[in-house]
Amino acid sequence: LATNTPLINAALGLDSWLVMRHGALPSSSAPSDDDDDDGGGRQSRLGCYFCNDIVAPENSTRDRTLDQQCTVTRPGLAPIASGMAAELMVAMLHHPRGQRAPAPVFRSNSGSVYAPVNHADDSEASSSALGRLPHQIRGTVATYTMMTPTVPAFQSCTACSVDVVEEYRRGGFDFVKRVCCDSEGSYLEGVSGLTEFRKRADEKLEECLDWDMDEDDYES
Q1: Which among 31, 43, 69, 126 is least buried, having the fewest CB atoms inside 10 angstroms?
Q2: Number of neighbouring beta carbons within 10 Å of residue 206
Q3: Separation between Cα atoms, residue 148 and residue 134, nearest integer Å
Q4: 208 included as an active-site residue
């Protein structure tokens, strides 16, 4: 994100897979958590692979059984996910806005998901010459189904938040080294604002559970 390099990643589970394109900064070089969409409104910048996490990345093989270490997967997942990643990349490169293309907006009457791009119609702003351009493609061979959710960028993401991008631009490799040497992940969580985010969440939870009940209320 700091260098505005297009990025598509694939991840494999035991019987499920994920392919997604990462969001990009606005056309201006200044970091922002929002980006314009082609539909005349506002669409949040698309999230990255780590935007769903509320902890810093950690060692995924420590204190976990073999099936929990993301080391075992069904044999068909790798070719399925890599094929989808290739198609998503080509479709993105054919879009007028490239990596900044907005994600599709779900409409019950949207018709075929393979409708070609129509620049005169804002409803097709997320389409390229090769069809719709989703943010994520999630599939499973347990039920042989797929879905294409859209996840906005998390403002306290440990990978793509504005504060992390700016810190990386300032510190470069020194910043990366400090993050990697911090086995607890507290430094990255502090830079991204995740520590403060969880603190506010805990405070809100305490407010919700802080009920003033007399002992008489428990008597039948």
Answers
A1: 69
A2: 9
A3: 6
A4: no
82-87 LR contacts (CB < 8 Å, sep 24+): 82/10, 84/10, 84/17, 84/19, 84/137, 84/139, 85/8, 85/9, 85/10, 85/19, 87/130
Q: Give the residue from 154, 176, 168, 163 showing the smallest Cα distance to 3.
A: 168
- Ordered per-residue pLDDT tens for the chain, 220 residues: 888 899 999 999 889 999 999 998 876 544 555 544 433 344 579 999 999 888 887 776 777 777 667 778 899 999 999 999 999 999 999 998 989 999 987 665 544 443 444 444 444 577 788 888 999 999 999 999 999 999 999 999 999 999 999 999 999 999 999 998 987 878 999 999 999 998 888 888 887 876 655 555 555 5
Q: Which of 48, 51, 70, 157 is catalytic?
A: 70
Which distant-in-sequence residues (6+ apart) come within 8 Å of 202 by Cβ?
none
Global pTM value: 0.76
Strands 34-36, 42-44: parallel, antiparallel or unpaired by DSSP?
antiparallel
Q: In whole angstroms, what is the distance from residue 185 CA to residue 202 CA?
A: 19
- Helix (H) / strand (E) element for 8: namely strand 8-12
Alpha carbon distance, N-terminus to C-terminus of the chain: 60
Angstrom distance (rounded) from CA 36 to CA 124: 15
Strand partners, 9: 20
Residue type, 1: L
